[in-house]
């Protein structure tokens, strides 16, 4: 396994985050479901789709960028650049490891999309 990917998983995947994020998104979907007269229609699907795109593209990009900026700010970027790890392996490890916290949390949103898009 990629060491950078493993390091980011250890740093970002805590039990609290794995429980809190799906719970918050599930509560958000439940509120929208209740406001839509307890039906999965286009409004619920639209909100779920918006949440999916927001967390995938905007939040995921922010987390990936912050992993590199955090290394520069902490002064460890030069050490990583001089390591024996190839640059592409490090880039992929940062890209997929830093935003791995929000992937398991998509289960309520994806379940809502599955129900609304028939």
Commentary on this structure:
With 118 residues, this protein is mostly helical. It has one domain. Helices cover 77% and strands 0% of the residues. The chain has helices at residues 3-12, 15-35, 42-74, 77-81, 87-98, 107-116. The termini are far apart. The chain is built from six helices and no strands. The longest helix has 33 residues, at 42-74.
Outline of the structure:
By secondary structure, the protein is mainly alpha-helical. It has six helices and no strands. It has one domain.
Topology (SSEs and partners):
Elements lengths: L2 H10 L2 H21 L6 H33 L2 H5 L5 H12 L8 H10 L2
Helix pairs in contact: 1-5, 2-3, 2-6, 3-5, 3-6
Kindly, what is the distance between the CA atoms of the first and last residues, rounded to a whole number of angstroms? 38 Å
Q: Counting H and I runs of at least 4 residues, what is the number of helices?
A: 6
Rg from Cα: 18 Å
How are helices and strands ordered from N to C? HHHHHH
Total E-strand runs? 0
Average pLDDT figure: 81
Based on secondary structure, the structural category is mainly alpha
Main pleated-sheet profile:
none
Helix content: over 70%
